[in-house]
Design goal:
Number of strands: 14
Shape: elongated
Strand order of the largest sheet: 8-6-9-10-11-13-14
Number of domains: 2
Largest sheet: 7 strands, mixed
CATH superfamily of the largest domain: Response regulator
Structural class: alpha/beta
Radius of gyration: 23 Å
Mean pLDDT: 91
Keywords: Signal
Helix content: 25-40%
Protein name: ABC transporter substrate-binding protein
Strand content: 15-25%
CATH architecture of the largest domain: 3-Layer(aba) Sandwich
CATH class of the largest domain: Alpha Beta
Low-confidence stretches: 11-22
Number of helices: 10
Length: 287
Amino acid sequence: MRKAICKVVQVGIILISSQILAKEPQVLIVYSASALENQAYPRVIEGIERVNPHAKRLEVAGDGANLQAMLDLNRPDKVIALGKGIVDSIYRTSFREQTVAGLTYFTPNDYSGVGLALDNRVLIESLSKLLPSVKRIVIVQQVHFQTIDYISSELKLSPLIEVREGADSLDTIRIIGRLLEEASATDAIFIPANLPTNILYEVAKVAWDRKVILLSTNLSHLENGALIAAYPDDVALGEQLGRAVNSSGPIYESAKGIRFALNRRVAQHLAVEFEPAALDYFSLKIK
């Protein structure tokens, strides 16, 4: 009698497990073979697989001319496409509606997915703890290249946030020039990630002389005058993409996992001091 009961229980567990597995969408992660040279890709894939341990990978070589056939063969419920080239290619297939885009900058009008642009709410909340003396942060970007998504909030954010967008490179440079003239010791300026190198040097020199805090979303700017660089946490971005496949319709999210890097020499020049706990918050510190 006991053996019969145990057998019934085992069968029930198997049936329940099968039903749970059946409800899980079959996720396919698609990326270019050459993209793996970029260290962000393996880390993002790691994050996706933490959330979707049964996800499959599809590595595409060359121009992906036979991508439709490869997708037909795998028959995924959801596709996570990494990188602009792969996203564009998949959007030309019949799997467009099932695709979640990642590891590229885009707007809600372009694709459905999780973009590389940082969520300003998460960004400012962290910076308010790292730079409590800063009362105003001005985000300078070009209209057609935004690395920080400004999402309005009913909550009163501190520090105060201002967004100034240039129509083109020249207009953006003029905005930065005016800001450097008017900035005070309690201001910080987010310079554009795509600021030309020769202009970056000039901006950094003026900011250094005037002791103006520069911030950036471009990690390379850390070696050229920025006090702090903010950039996506690759594994957290992967986890966010992994959760996005559960959306029943189009979705757009900014990157919510953010890492920070610090230039200690610039901090010393600006007389900006950090408590030990705050220093531990930085993933990278350069001298």
